[in-house]
Amino acid sequence: MATWSGLESLSHNFLTGKLEEFVNWCREHSMWPATFGLACCAIEMMAAGAADFDLARFGMEVFRPSPRQADLMIVAGRVSQKMAPVLRQVYDQMVEPKWVISMGVCASTGGMFNNYAIVQGVDEIVPVDVYAPGCPPSPQTLIHAILTLHEKVRTGEITRRRSDSGSGAGVDLAAEVPGWTQPLPRPVHLGTPR
Amino acid sequence: MGFFDDLRFFGGFKQAIIQVLEPRVTTEYPKQKRPKPPRLHGRHVLNRYEDGMEKCIGCELCAAACPADCIYVRGADNDPENPNSPGERFGFVYEINYLRCIHCDLCVEACPTEAITESKLFEFSFTSRADAIYTREELLVDDTGAVRRQPWEDWREGEEQHTSGWMRATAPAGAAEYEGVVQWSGELGHGVRPPEGGQSGRRDDSATGNISIREVNRAKIPVRFGGRVR
């Protein structure tokens, strides 16, 4: 881990804890997405921003054309091999802290386009925080993904999926790995939280 | 320019004032859900017969039909003393990757035993790729025939009743005279589901719990077509 600068070097006490909660609250409620519609998922992303579903309720109605002004990149659609460096450049131009939602199965895993032209998952290029399944995901699914991201921003980690619900592809890490315990939610630091 | 000529300036607000008085169209999603179309494709459910046996026989036809290669099935021989399914074999590994699934329902069409059907739920998201792989234990209905609601999925009251919508909406081979005729076996906890009826006149929306798309979009249809928008 690189040397911390800023609040991370302070010990976690009442003041910094409350400040951290405040910063998280601000980030959660003013997250501006970058315009990165690539395919049919972008139609649903536009629908989510329009009056029917109204992303403005979450403080994120403005899709910024400039990555310098955006906090969140919603990769909506299949990413071709030629688009991949552009996507990475847009991600690099965004200012910290920044998050990525991989919207739809094509962006997440390539989906049904299992061929040489499409990047098989956008997480090969950029670190993805939340995946929205569906082809395309409905505006509700996108809003669910955004709320999941909000929860991730607020708590630092999503811990809804645990082994005691029988989930996680049947792998019970606590039983199979000696000494392993379920990681507790950690607070979000003032850098990119990953 | 007289005083009354200046008042014409406010005429520009006429359309804005009319729009303010229009009914609201926004569905505040996390607080409420809008009703879904009857045949919507959502996440899958693995069904059981009414005696509790699993319907899946592990034939892998769904995996063969899947255009996105999202289904992974492995069959195994049933224990004759304690069988999982009525046939010789059962699907002992059944995984669906929801980051590959495009919800085309070709698996539902391909399934010879009506084991896999789709619910209408699609409000879920993941924070890692491994989380998106649903296992057989998560897809299979529980001992009462109800859908296993995973904690990260956004189920609302009554939504678990809408499984096997595609089965109930279509006739075998698409023959019109079979529309609204029950052609499928019973499901655990639900019995034999009522058919949708399509356009055959035998339609009973109260039995199937369907809401027509016209009712769903009532707020967006103009008044002259029976809606609420002027």
Short description:
With 194 residues, chain A is α/β, with parallel strands linked by helices.
What structural class do the secondary elements of chain B suggest? Answer: alpha+beta
CATH architecture of chain B: 2-Layer Sandwich
**pLDDT < 50 stretches of chain B:** none
Number of continuous helical runs of chain B: 8
Q: Main sheet of chain B: which strands, in order across?
A: 2-3-5
What quaternary form is this? heterodimer
- Summarize the amount of helix of chain A as a percent range: 25-40%
Report on this model:
- The complex is a heterodimer of chains A (194) and B (230).
- Chain A has 194 residues and is α/β, with parallel strands linked by helices.
- Chain A has six helices and four strands; from the N terminus they run αβαβαβαβαα.
- In chain A, helix 2 (41-49) packs across helix 5 (139-155).
- Chain B has 230 residues and is of the alpha+beta class.
- Chain B has eight helices and five strands.
- Chain B has helices at residues 3-7, 14-20, 61-65, 106-110, 136-139, 165-169, 205-208, 213-216; strands at 44-46, 71-77, 89-97, 116-118, 133-134.
- The longest helix of chain B is centred in the N-terminal third of the chain and has 7 residues, at 14-20.
- Classes of the chains: A alpha/beta (194), B alpha+beta (230).
